[in-house]
Automatic annotation (TrEMBL):
It is found in: Membrane. Keywords: Membrane, Oxidoreductase, Transit peptide, Transmembrane, Transmembrane helix. Residues 1-64 form the Pheophorbide a oxygenase domain. One of its GO terms (cellular component) is membrane. The keyword Transit peptide applies. This is Pheophorbide a oxygenase domain-containing protein. One of its GO terms (molecular function) is chlorophyllide a oxygenase activity. Coiled coil: none annotated. Its main location: membrane. It comes from the Eukaryota.
Length: 193
């Protein structure tokens, strides 16, 4: 749902068709998956396209209402939803929800959208975590775990308890890596499996 030029809100619901036919253990496991974990999984999907879509939006802002037909090649059946949506926008709107905003200057409203870096476009904290109760709580808990692990590492070192010190250090390192999942994760298509 477009909220302003360069920004949108995504409403997402994962539905399992015939969920009743799943094994009992699978239904039990799905029901107990924390909301923040579900959001982390979805972020990977959004990250895969976010910057590309942003660049395409900026490219469209430079052209005409129908420019998408010439600028973007969408040959597969997977592109049908995008093509159908863009066709609907062309037919029933004046360039989308912000099509008239730039009418006075001759520029499309999309051209007025700010230029962002890749990091800004994919900033999970600003776009999601700080607004989501589940994810902001998980980030807070991860930070607490990290501090506790560092304290345990120092205690282990002071007591000359090498296993405690090393395990705690590893936990603190892991917490730092996990913390980044709520803030920013760079998505490079060539590095994905």
């Amino acid at each position: 749902i477009p909220t302003k030029p360069g920004h949108c809100r995504v409403l997402f619901k994962f539905v399992i068709v015939n969920a009743g036919s799943l094994p009992k253990f699978a239904r039990w496991l799905i029901a107990r998956t924390p909301t923040w974990k579900d959001h982390q999984t979805r972020n990977k999907v959004f990250d895969s396209d976010a910057f590309l879509l942003y660049l395409q939006e900026m490219e469209l802002a430079q052209g005409t209402k129908d420019g998408w037909k010439e600028k973007f090649f969408m040959p597969t059946s997977l592109d049908a939803l995008v093509t159908g949506f863009r066709t609907w926008v062309d037919k029933f709107t004046n360039g989308g929800p912000y099509g008239l905003a730039g009418a006075d200057t001759g520029k499309s409203a999309g051209a007025a959208a700010a230029a962002y870096t890749k990091r800004e476009v994919m900033d999970r904290y600003e776009q999601h975590t700080k607004h989501c109760k589940a994810c902001s709580g998980a980030l807070r808990n991860t930070k607490i775990l990290q501090v506790a692990a560092l304290v345990a590492c120092v205690v282990g070192a002071c007591l000359r308890n090498l296993p405690l010190a090393l395990t705690s250090l590893a936990a603190a390192f892991y917490a730092e890596k996990w913390k980044q999942r709520f803030i920013f994760v760079d998505h490079i298509h060539a590095h994905q499996d």
